[in-house]
Amino acid sequence: MKLSCFLLISAAILAGCTSGDTHVASGNKIKRVGMVTGIRPEKIAYYKELHAAAWQGVLKKIHEANIRNYTIYLKQIDTAYYLFSHYEYIGTDYQSDMKKIAADSVTQRWWRETAPCQIPLPEAAAKGEIWTAMEEVFHTE
């Protein structure tokens, strides 16, 4: 996939994948986002290595884009492996913040490293996407 296409798809995924919202004391909402994708078994060690030493520029951009409590989990189901991600968005303009992440050159380089590790689920692949949004069915504070 061409990089420009990948970046547009990634931005669209980030912009469209939402879970629930909850109010915080300040009156702002926290948007909870959960997504899932597959991961190539032979790339798991590399993916873990990348994230064990995540690039400071990527982390800085995530923070500047009002993303907090970003977590990625790994799970084997039968013979396949999956990544589950969850984060909270605390800003007021989600679309704009996601575009800032997608436009960041360090993040673009990061995505060039992580994308070959991932295997989109069929519904995401059919749309040219990598991550699939998940519906939030329960949350408690």
Protein traits:
6-stranded antiparallel β-sheet, alpha+beta, about 30% strand, disordered N terminus, about 140 residues, 6 helices
Report a brief summary of the structure.
This protein is α+β, with helices and mostly antiparallel strands. The chain contains six helices and six strands, in the order αββααββααβαβ. Helix 1 packs antiparallel against helix 4.
Query: Structural class of the helices, strands and pairings?
Result: alpha+beta
Ends distance: 40 Å
* Spans of at least 5 consecutive residues with low confidence: 1-19
Helix and strand pattern: HEEHHEEHHEHE
Computed Rg: 15 Å
Indicate the overall shape: globular
The major β-sheet equals: 6 strands, antiparallel
Number of H- or I-type helical stretches: 6
Look at the structure and give the mean pLDDT. Answer: 85
Number of strands: 6
The fraction of residues in strands falls at 25-35%
Helix content: 40-55%
Question: How would you sum up this structure, described in words?
Answer:
The structure is a single chain. This protein is α+β, with helices and mostly antiparallel strands and 141 residues long. It is built from six helices and six strands. Strands 1, 2, 3, 4, 5 and 6 form a six-stranded antiparallel beta sheet that branches. Helix 1 packs antiparallel against helix 4. The protein starts with a helix and ends in an 8-residue tail after the last strand.
